[in-house]
Design goal:
The complex is a heterodimer of chains A (about 230) and B (about 325).
Chain A lengths: L1 H13 L2 H23 L5 H19 L1 H9 L2 H6 L4 H23 L1 H8 L6 H26 L4 H16 L1 H8 L1 H9 L2 H9 L5 H28 L2
Helix pairs in contact in A: 1-6, 2-3, 2-6, 3-8, 3-9, 6-8, 6-13, 8-9, 8-12, 8-13, 10-11
Chain B lengths: L1 E10 L2 E11 L4 E5 L6 H8 L7 E6 L2 E2 L4 H7 E4 L11 H11 L4 H14 L15 H13 L5 E5 L7 H14 L4 E6 L2 H7 L2 E6 L2 E6 L1 H8 L2 E9 L2 H9 L4 E11 L2 E9 L5 H11 L3 E7 L3 H15 L1
Parallel strand pairs in B: 3-8, 3-9, 6-7, 7-8
Antiparallel strand pairs in B: 1-2, 1-4, 4-5, 9-10, 11-13, 11-14, 12-13
Helix pairs in contact in B: 3-4
Chain lengths: ~230, ~325
């Protein structure tokens, strides 16, 4: 698992992809931070919500190649014929993407630090919002990895990941429109409704468990998909 | 060392391989020969645990690939047809990564990698990006990958495909050297390669085993004719006629005219009858000097074609 993790982290940073993504994230969140500075507005939780929105676009790009590339280049053979468990491969790769994401988040600590310097204070809402954002991103990455496992084309993986995340993002809205059983199912996938608790400064255990289960389920399904393909491949 | 019992793989309704049975002894170099699409890669993918079989068992060093896959994978080094290399890594980084994947002890890893790089002659490119290497070097990096962790068994799928002749000879030499302390299964559709490197050959055709034997025995059992080329100085028609009259000669054909009236003929005869002497006396009597006489053994290529076409006729 460690071997996979470090290899993936290195390949993120040897290629431009990590820099581009971190750069884009920082650029957009800086633009969104601008009004806070100009208006002297001390509340940062709105920004955190918007960052979640940016992640819908960035996470699929972060994860698109992580499994599809191995399949396309034939390196999947190496991973599957090495004395290492498939679950370790998938988790190692997941953690590597998570690591890059955490770097983005770490850089974004600058904004609240600036606000604190100008007299704002660290509120429970701010801490909760960050915890929620990290869990939200971690869940998005699990969805992205799942998307990457079902195709060997990176672009298709990114598009599938993006659409899936968009549906999850809008799950509440779509659910209230369609109603019935579909609404209930959509509500299961609604990462956002759980996020609200965090944003209000509540560290809710049930929401925490929900996110962790969400991540586990998507990683498990990813493993199953690769395993199933081994059994039925052309 | 490797036991393959009743191995079958279906892809939906398409048969990949069907009821394969063979064993590979410790220290043996086994050639896996067949036309493209015969099931060579499928078999290798199953042996290495990349792909499960539909039916049948594969045992490597006594471990069943389905029951104890990790034990088997520890003992096999696999070079697939397309080397499983990461283009955006340096050779050394890549081999280090594979070393970690294969759980090579950290203390011995560096010296082991150095030895392997020395063996496959990639030491001087170790700091270069793999994507910038030539095809031959990429293949060697792939081979180095298979050697990491000192596996007892090496499975090499078309190791020389796409290389230039000089590289082919080098890789073959290397495989021969590795054969001294490894059990090797090697696939190829190039016959000279198999006869040059392997001690035993499995000919596979349409997913089934068509023949298993040493290259020499295959030549013996499949060749019912012996073939020779004779260069004789004399008029073509009368030479052909007088050779045809000799008992045991089945077939004569003039192939190349080197100078005027010096012609090379291909003669096929019954295997048990030596027609060289009668031909010599007949030609001497007719006053046509023999300039050259060479017996052409049945090559593996002939056998292969024979096996493959025989099968076609049955189907």
């Amino acid at each position: 698992m460690q071997a996979i993790f470090w290899k993936e982290v290195k390949s993120y940073f040897y290629s431009p992809i990590a820099y581009v993504l971190i750069g884009m994230f920082t650029l957009i969140s800086s633009i969104m931070f601008w009004p806070n500075l100009v208006a002297g507005y001390g509340d940062f939780n709105g920004n955190l919500g918007s960052m979640g929105y940016i992640l819908i676009f960035l996470v699929p790009i972060l994860t698109m190649r992580i499994l599809s590339e191995d399949r396309k280049n034939g390196t999947e053979v190496l991973l599957l014929t090495s004395p290492i468990k498939l679950s370790n491969v998938v988790i190692g790769k997941y953690l590597a993407a998570l690591f890059v994401f955490l770097i983005m988040i770490f850089i974004s600590f600058l904004y609240p630090i600036i606000l604190v310097i100008f007299g704002s204070s660290i509120t429970p809402q701010l801490v909760g919002g960050y915890v929620g954002l990290i869990l939200l991103g971690a869940s998005f990455i699990a969805v992205g990895i799942f998307a990457s496992s079902i195709t060997e084309n990176q672009v298709i993986a990114a598009v599938i990941g993006f659409v899936a995340l968009l549906v999850i993002w809008l799950a509440d809205g779509i659910g209230s429109m369609v109603g019935g059983v579909a609404a209930k199912i959509l509500y299961w996938f609604s990462l956002l409704s759980r996020y609200e608790d965090f944003n209000n400064g509540i560290l809710s255990l049930s929401a925490l468990v929900y996110y962790i289960s969400f991540i586990s389920v998507f990683l498990f399904v990813t493993i199953m998909i690769i395993e199933r393909r081994r059994w039925s491949q052309r | 060392m490797i036991e393959i019992l009743d191995l079958t793989k279906n892809y939906g309704h398409v048969v990949g391989v069907k009821n394969l049975n063979f064993t590979v002894e410790k220290g043996e170099v086994l050639g896996f020969l067949g036309p493209n699409g015969a099931g060579k890669t499928t078999t290798m993918n199953i042996i290495t645990g990349y792909m499960p079989s539909t039916k049948g068992t594969v045992k490597v060093c006594g471990y069943d690939i389905m029951e104890q896959p990790t034990e088997v994978k520890k003992r096999i080094g696999y070079l697939p047809e397309q080397p499983p290399i990461y283009m955006d890594m340096t050779v050394l980084d890549y081999l280090n990564f594979v070393g970690e994947l294969k759980k090579v002890d950290k203390k011995i890893k560096k010296s082991q990698l150095d030895d392997i790089m020395e063996l496959v002659k990639i030491t001087d490119v170790r700091k270069r990006m793999i994507k910038n290497l030539s095809k031959g070097y990429k293949q060697r990096v792939g081979l180095a990958q298979a050697l990491i962790g000192k596996p007892e068994v090496l499975v090499l799928d078309e190791p020389t495909v796409g290389l230039d002749p000089k590289q082919i000879i080098e890789i073959r030499k290397l495989i021969k050297a590795l054969g001294k302390d490894h059990t090797i299964i090697l696939s190829s559709h190039i016959l000279t390669e198999v006869s040059a490197v392997c001690e035993r050959v499995v000919i596979i055709h349409k997913g089934e085993i068509a023949a298993i034997d040493t290259p020499e025995n295959l030549s013996k059992s499949f060749g019912t004719m012996s073939k020779m080329s004779i260069t004789i100085s004399g008029p073509k028609n009368s030479v052909v006629n007088s050779i045809k009259e000799i008992y045991g000669v089945k077939y004569v054909e003039a192939s190349v005219e080197k100078e005027k009236d010096i012609i090379t003929y291909i003669v096929e005869s019954d295997k048990d009858l030596d027609v060289r002497k009668p031909i010599f006396f007949a030609m001497a009597k007719a006053g046509y000097p023999i300039m050259e006489l060479k017996s052409l053994g049945m090559s593996l290529e002939d056998i292969f074609l024979q096996v493959v076409t025989e099968d076609k006729e049955v189907v």
